[in-house]
Amino acid sequence: MARARNGRGVKAARRPEVRLPELQQYGGGGLAPDGDYDGLEFGDVDLGGQDGAGARFMDCRLAGCALDETRLRRARLLDSVLTGVRGVGTDLAESTLRDVEVVDARLGGTQMHGAVLERVLVRGGKIDFLNLRTASLRDVVFESCVLVEPDFAGARMERVAFVDCAVKGADFGEATLTDVDLRAAAPLEIVRGVDRLAGAVISTAQLLDLAPVLAVQLGIGVED
Q1: Which residues are within 8 A (CB) of 6 and not within 5 positions of it... i.e. 6 or more apart?
Q2: Which helix (H) or strand (E) holds 210?
Q3: Res. 5: pLDDT tops 70
Q4: Continuous H helices in 4-49
Q5: More confident residue, 1 or 218
């Protein structure tokens, strides 16, 4: 278990342990709202613009799929792996991701406000403008990926780790953090919500980098 400099313990995030069964190939035909997809392999399928709102994906692999403007609001992704998915404007608002791995994704403007993420690993790839406002994140690891202007405003984050991850222009306004480990994020750029980092652990170097933003948000004047 990692230790903060003040001696307070930092609980490590529990990573997902996804063991997929033998999968059947997805037969096509398009996603359906409230559809049920169990034990399927979606390989290089273009799901752009399709409506799978409320659908359930259980023991599935999505590999190389296009998700441009795909509507998956309130969908449930359980014990599944997403590898090399790409897309702009994917709607996963109010969705549930539990025991999910997202590997080498290339996404932009993904809407996940109000979503629930539990035991989720995001490894590799780049995600621009990820909207996680008011979402609940528990046991989530962002590893070796690039997050550009992620929005965590109002989110509840518990046991969340950023490991060798670039975090650029993040918004933590009104977020609630518990056992959030930011020490291995490089760079760590926070444009809003530095005053909400109680419950997080950062390095001494990160503290120095964030000092100007912290001073502005707390109304501290700095003069030599």
Answers
A1: none
A2: helix 204-217
A3: no
A4: none
A5: 218
